[in-house]
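User: Can you recover a sequence for this backbone? Please restate the input before giving your answer.

Assistant: Of course. Working from this structure:
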């Protein structure tokens, strides 16, 4: 399965990273860093409409290369003009062609909350995310045990990182809400990578009031965005619909407001 392959690849990557820079070195770096509170949640709640988390993504396992003329800083510049509430930055290198340096580059120039989007399997990656300047991390319930989820969420809280907790089915939502305040429903099946936008509607009743509700994947048209408005989702994470367009601002406006 695709998810299992990505998780296995990520574990190898993390071990290699630890050989180059130990966890204790990362923590020493954090001692000297400005540990500001994560601003991701505040960004998502800053407007009364559905907030937009615009994604920076070069490729994916299911679609291959998505944007041939990929330049993360040029894309961030375009997004900065679009009135978005947050950016999601892919940092997984093998399947999504991302890099952690994208986060630090973007945070150094733009004052928009940044989510490090990766497959977190080790606390080391949470330390990396904070040191790079991320405001939030992604925790994927399908890739974590209950113990890992609890420990990783606690570590993120200690580092004042917000956490987007990604779910795909009812069991994962029930596990996620125990600790998570920002609950994402991914309309993409991470085993098959097939999409069904109605997944978020089916799982929405399981998310308690007071949680920030985020729809992920399969949001490609203005009609899809209106659908989320009708369900009263707080935010939508959107990547491919923007990444495939030459004029990113026009794509964002079209999705939000129609033609």
């Amino acid at each position: 399965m695709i998810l299992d392959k990505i998780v296995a690849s990520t574990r190898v990557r993390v071990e290699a990273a630890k050989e180059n820079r130990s966890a204790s070195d990362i923590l020493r770096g954090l001692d000297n860093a400005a540990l500001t509170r994560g601003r991701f949640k505040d960004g998502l709640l800053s407007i009364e409409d559905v907030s937009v988390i615009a994604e920076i993504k070069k490729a994916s396992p299911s679609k291959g290369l998505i944007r041939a003329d990929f330049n993360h800083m040029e894309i961030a510049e375009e997004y900065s003009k679009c009135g978005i509430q947050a950016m999601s930055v892919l940092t997984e290198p093998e399947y999504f062609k991302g890099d952690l340096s994208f986060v630090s580059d973007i945070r150094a120039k733009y004052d928009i909350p940044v989510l490090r989007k990766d497959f977190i399997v080790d606390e080391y990656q949470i330390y990396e995310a904070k040191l790079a300047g991320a405001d939030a991390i992604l925790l994927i319930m399908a890739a974590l045990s209950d113990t890992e989820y609890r420990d990783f969420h606690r570590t993120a809280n200690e580092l004042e990182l917000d956490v987007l907790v990604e779910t795909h089915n009812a069991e994962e939502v029930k596990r996620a809400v125990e600790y998570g305040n920002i609950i994402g429903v991914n309309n993409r099946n991470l085993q098959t990578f097939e999409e069904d936008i109605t997944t978020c509607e089916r799982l929405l009743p399981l998310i308690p009031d007071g949680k920030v509700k985020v729809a992920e994947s399969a949001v490609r048209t203005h009609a899809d965005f209106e659908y989320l408005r009708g369900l009263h989702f707080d935010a939508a994470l959107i990547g491919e619909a923007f990444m495939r367009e030459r004029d990113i601002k026009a794509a964002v406006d079209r999705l939000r407001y129609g033609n």
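That completes the design. The chain has 13 helices and ten strands.
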